[in-house]
Amino acid sequence: MSSNEFPGWHGTTIIGVRKGGEVVIAGDGQVSLGPTVIKGTAKKVRRLSPGGYDVVAGFAGSTADAFTLLERLEAKLEATPGQLARASVELAKDWRTDKYLQKLEAMLIVTDGKDLFVITGAGDVLEPEHDVAAIGSGGNFALAAARGLMDSDGSAEEIARKAMAIASDICVYTNGKLTVETIKA
Questions:
Q1: What is the pTM of this model?
Q2: Most buried residue, 58, 83, 102, 148, by CB count within 10 Å?
């Protein structure tokens, strides 16, 4: 099948919200192939503990590609314990320059409770403005909703959950079956 005949995989909305001394990463569970939901309960948010330092990561894109990137990130974090920014930059450099990694189609949101980054295959390590980051099919919907909720009295988790609920009402590639991980600063 040529690439324009294949309907393509869609799915996943991941959001990271930093507020009140904690960071929450939440992700939905939907994976779709064209107009069909293939799985509704995928877990795309993970807690990693390389070198004894907790990191929470969420991914959007190809699952196999994302797991490859998470393994690489863990290795970078083991080499530089407690230095998420450095490990993220090293991963982004490898991802951008390595011929094998360049083909990987995924994005990551990572946090250690202090820093919050979006890592892309274009070599980007982005610290979001307004303490909210979102990726995936419904990422822009979740981002807009969370930014609108940041001035509310809600906690980081409440904002992430409400933003994901709004995204799942709008984006057909996002559902309300969430995996939520919280990490304190």
A1: 0.91
A2: 58
